[in-house]
Design a protein that fits this description.
The complex is a heterodimer. Chain A contains 11 helices and 2 strands; from the N terminus they run H-H-E-E-H-H-H-H-H-H-H-H-H. Chain A is an all-alpha fold. Chain A has a single domain, classed as MetI-like fold (Orthogonal Bundle). A two-stranded antiparallel sheet of chain A has the order 1-2. In chain A, strand 1 and strand 2 form a beta hairpin. Chain B is mostly helical. Chain B has one domain: Orthogonal Bundle (MetI-like fold), CATH 1.10.3720.10. Chain B has 12 helices and 2 strands. In chain B, strand 1 and strand 2 form a beta hairpin. The radius of gyration of chain B is 23 Å and the shape is globular. The relative contact order of chain B is 0.15. Classes of the chains: A mainly alpha, B mainly alpha. At the A-B interface, helix 1, helix 3, helix 4, helix 5 and helix 6 of A face helix 1, helix 3, helix 4, helix 5 and helix 7 of B.
Chain lengths: 296, 283
């Protein structure tokens, strides 16, 4: 890496010299340009959120949250979709957590940079890039058909668990690696084994960072549509058990909006989704801030 | 006893790690098992370069959808990458602290909003705008590109910003001490130094754009034909699966899995190159 480049050769052809622009002027132009692009982008992004909330908030009331959808969702509330979202997400997170965190501990504490490690890391990073529709295809052929779980909360949750696994692995590994080495050294110097050191010294101080990753992946599962519609189905009934089909809020919104069933209820559902994501982010940020404060 | 616990804990962690990654093998295996027979039956060349997609007549050619995916993704990249890098420069260098503190959570929130919401917004605003001002049906490559560009912005911005902020302080200080202006410093010192991180951000963004399904179903028009202009409707590989998976069966379903294989291969190629680039930086 070269930190500096030689100054660009100025155009000079038989005594002809173009007028030079002073670097200070360029600086002003560029600054103005970058500022305006950034402000425009944030304006567009915020307008999306404001628009959905503006249209959706008036729809939301107690009945909307607690009633079952009637007439395909044209009337009534979205209680079964809320239940579906919570159930599918809960299954996904509870299954992905032990595997994701375990993998992170293995990568951060036990690996020695050999081939096995490289394969694990490569796979984890590759999983992160696979499109959700491909997870949906896999969930459909493996959980729904091959394991014969049918369109169900369980199939949807398991599919999402695989999808959020890379997020949990990556954030947890970062959290574990950011625990200062002195913690480990103290653990060992007290005569602790590796496991005792991890349990007593490393894990407690990494727990907030790990929780942050888990919460972010909750957000991802709540927002997912493509993978869920292929594995959990789109039944409107209140899911009775883990083996019954369910419709999540994101799927409900998609169906209401694209089939033109009820724009009002679609806006209401979207508004609740955005509020939910907002709260999830606040919790995650609070955790991360405390985590950083504690690390110092 | 302690030694036993020690051994046991390592074994358990190792087993958890192994099962996490065996999922990748499982995904590959099942999608290929389901899709490869159809590719073999139709012929790989005819499947990938075939122009006609008519599952009812047993014609499975996905070339128009490959063109669709490529064109929509290219459009999103052309629109999204410069804007994204611009924003990351703004966040890392120009923005005052209070603004950064608003921008960062806002970008994070936008990364978490369901893709269906973006698609719906596009259907309500972008599609009519294109129809009224530029002509055509509105449901078009351009509409999809705009929506995808907006959707990949959070990814590109946050990763490039991190790589800009991660540069050692003395790079910037040295350049400023040489009398460079702030922009000259950014252009000739900071951007080149953060290049690998920015490239990785761009590749991840492109991967997200190729893989996106629900948002683009709403705004692309979904007709299976090779587009003549950016105002024509198209269908992508992902939307082909998303639309038809609901009712497909038999050979048709296999063909959708075969579409998934093509998508999977493209994404894996992108993943590997992104990983290669980031790893080179670490060394």
């Amino acid at each position: 890496m070269k930190p500096t480049k030689p100054p660009p050769r100025r155009f000079n052809f038989r005594g002809f010299k173009p007028r030079e622009i002073k670097p200070q002027t360029v600086e002003k132009i560029v600054k103005g340009f970058v500022w305006s692009v950034a402000l425009m982008v944030i304006a567009v992004l915020i307008s999306i959120v404001v628009f959905i909330l503006y249209k959706g908030l008036p729809v939301i009331n107690w009945g909307f949250l607690t009633e079952i959808p009637r007439k395909m969702g044209r009337e009534g509330g979205i209680s079964s979709a809320i239940a579906g979202t919570l159930l599918v997400t809960a299954v996904a997170v509870f299954i992905a957590m032990p595997f994701g965190i375990g993998t992170a501990f293995y990568l951060a504490e036990y690996t020695r940079g050999n081939t096995v490690t490289r394969v694990i890391r490569f796979s984890a990073e590759s999983l992160a890039g696979i499109p959700s529709i491909v997870y949906g295809l896999f969930g459909f052929i493996f959980f729904v058909m091959y394991l014969n779980l049918g369109w169900s909360v369980l199939s949807g949750g398991l599919t999402l668990a695989i999808m959020i696994l890379p997020t949990i692995i990556r954030t947890s590994e970062e959290a574990i690696r950011s625990v200062p080495n002195t913690y480990r050294e103290v653990g060992f110097s007290l005569g602790g084994t590796k496991w005792q050191t991890i349990r007593g010294a490393v894990a407690p101080s990494a727990v907030r960072g790990i929780a942050n990753g888990v919460i972010l992946s909750v957000g991802r599962s709540v927002a997912e549509t493509a993978a869920v519609v292929l594995t959990a189905g789109s039944a409107l009934r209140m899911p009775a058990s883990l083996s019954s089909p369910a419709r999540t809020m994101a799927v409900h919104f998609y169906i209401l909006a694209t089939e033109g069933i009820s724009m009002e209820n679609a806006y209401g559902t979207a508004a609740i989704l955005i509020i939910l994501i907002f709260f999830i982010n606040i919790v995650a940020n609070t955790l991360i801030n405390r985590f950083v404060a504690k690390g110092r | 006893m302690r030694k036993f616990k020690e051994k046991l804990s390592e074994r358990i962690f190792f087993a958890l790690a192994l099962s996490s990654i065996s999922v990748l093998a499982l995904i590959t295996l099942f999608i290929f098992i389901k899709g490869v027979p159809l590719i073999a039956e139709v012929g790989a060349f005819k499947f990938i370069f075939g122009m006609s997609w008519a599952p009812g007549r047993g014609e499975f050619g996905i070339f128009p959808m490959i063109i669709g995916s490529v064109s929509v993704t290219l459009g999103a990249a052309v629109l999204g990458i410069p804007v994204g890098i611009c924003c990351s420069i703004f966040m890392a260098e120009f923005a005052p602290v209070w603004m950064r503190n608003i921008f960062r959570p806002a970008i994070q929130l936008l990364a978490g909003i369901p893709s269906v919401v973006y698609g719906f917004w596009g259907l309500l605003f972008v599609v009519p705008a294109i129809r009224n001002y530029l002509g055509g049906p509105g449901l078009s490559i351009l509409a999809g590109s705009v929506i995808l560009a907006i959707m990949i912005l959070p990814t590109i911005i946050s990763i490039s910003e991190v790589s800009l902020l991660a540069l050692p302080r003395h790079y910037k200080e040295g350049a400023l001490a040489l009398g460079m202006t702030h922009w000259q410093t950014i252009r000739s010192v900071q951007l080149p130094a953060a290049k690998s991180g920015i490239v990785a951000a761009v590749i991840l963004g492109i991967g997200r754009a190729i893989g996106e399904t629900m948002a683009v179903i709403m705004v692309l028009g979904n007709s299976v034909a090779v587009p003549q202009s950016v105002l024509d409707p198209v269908r992508t590989l992902t939307t082909n699966i998303g639309i038809e998976m609901g009712y497909a069966s038999g050979g048709h379903q296999q063909a959708l899995f075969a579409t998934g294989i093509v998508l999977f291969v493209i994404i894996m190629a992108l993943n590997v190159s992104a990983q290669y680039i980031t790893r080179r930086k670490i060394k």
